[in-house]
Amino acid sequence: MSAIAHILRRGIELVLVPFDALPGWLALTLLGLLSGAGMLWVVGKVTRQNRLERSRDRMASTIYEVRLYLDSPKRMLLAQGRMLVASARYISCILPAFAILAIPLGLLYLSLEPRFGLAPLATKTPMVIQVDLAEGENGDALAADPEASEAVTITAPPVVDAVRHRVYLRAELTAPVTAILALRAGDQVIT
Predict the structure, then answer these.
(1) What is the spatial distance between Cα 152 and Cα 183, in angstroms, rounded to a whole number?
(2) Which terminus of the chain is less hemmed in, N or C, by CB atoms within 10 Å?
(3) 80 in Cβ contact with 62 (< 8 Å)
(4) pTM higher than 0.85, yes or no?
């Protein structure tokens, strides 16, 4: 990761820290309102508002023109062509603001997804664990290491897919903890 991206990511993490104490729905609502206000401010400062308004008015007028000339296919097609041109101008007016907002909003999304998009696994709920094997490895010898995995219980024997070089295990959490599953294949231990 480049130094600039690292600095931006750390800055966004520092901005998000106060929202961690709030309930998820409230934090997301406030972040949505604040980011929406920030986007409006950037669009207002970066775009030329008179060109944006003119493009929007031309798009609206072509819609009325299409409705007005329904009986004339030639005029209707010309109006639709003008609508495409006006839409392209509108997008070209918005493009600089989009370019400025893309990086911070992308990094904001990357920071919000682990906070609010992922939920912990529930205890006693079956889950399937997929283990990708190296080419030529035998998945029949794969088993859970009972000493290193007391919070995860394997509930069925492993299913080996020799064609895709994968092993599937059905398991469940026995306690609501952060757990590392250790698997043993002969002398090797995979966590």
Answers:
(1) 11
(2) N
(3) yes
(4) no
